[in-house]
Design a protein that fits this description.
Blueprint: E1 41-45, H1 55-66, E2 71-72, H2 86-99, E3 105-110, H3 112-123, E4 132-138, H4 144-163, E5 165-170, E6 175-180, H5 182-187, E7 201-206, H6 215-221, E8 227-232, H7 242-253
Parallel strand pairs: 1-2, 1-3, 3-4, 4-7, 7-8
Antiparallel strand pairs: 5-6
Helix pairs in contact: 2-3
Length: about 260
Amino acid sequence: MSENIYKPGVHIGCAPKIGVCVMMEGIENNPPGAARVPPTTLIYLHGFASSPASAKAVEFQQRFAQRGLDLRVPDLNVPDFEHLTLTAVLARVAEEARAAAPGSIGLIGSSMGGLAALHFADRYRHAEAAQVTHLFLMAPALDFASNRAKALGERGLDTWRSSGYLTVHHHTYNETRRVHYGLYEDITRYDSFSVTLDTPMLIVHGVHDESVDHQQSVRFAEDRPNVDLKLVDSDHKLLDQTDVMWDWMQTFFGV
């Protein structure tokens, strides 16, 4: 895949109002590895400073429910938000997978939840993630540490390190909460771009994402034929893309 494969204004399998759509060269409108039947279990992983009450989680949970399917949405603020680590998040996802009914598992991840979905499928591939068959990632924070470093700058990162805590806005509580520096230390141990999986993945990323550069997804999708990357005319939240993402989900998960 290369950047000259996609052009603004070309809508391959896209809905109206989408300015850019990326398709892997030689791939038809259906994503690679689209399921013929729905996974036995669907799990939604929310993003950083979010919760199961996030707008997209609630909307997709309702949409799946209308199809008679249960979308599980675990709370990933573990062990609590202040002491959050990616390692703890992956353990929580493993716990959710163990509690699921026997059979295949489809993961949907948003932002840091997309990062968690990828590394859960990788790190737990011979354990709880062995049944994961599909990954649907929305604006995945594939390089979370780099995103934080860019947002904070060198001085801000030093302050976080020296004080031990960073104050951020938590969307669920609509107030500032602090998170320890251990999150940054832990997450730097995970390299998304070295992950090798054959699992079918569909990534949706907004070209106006102000939090996670969409080029991270472009870089990840390169030379990975199991990844279908769709760039859309939207921001990090992708709230104006839920209709088209639902269409893609239905095809991808065989709903």
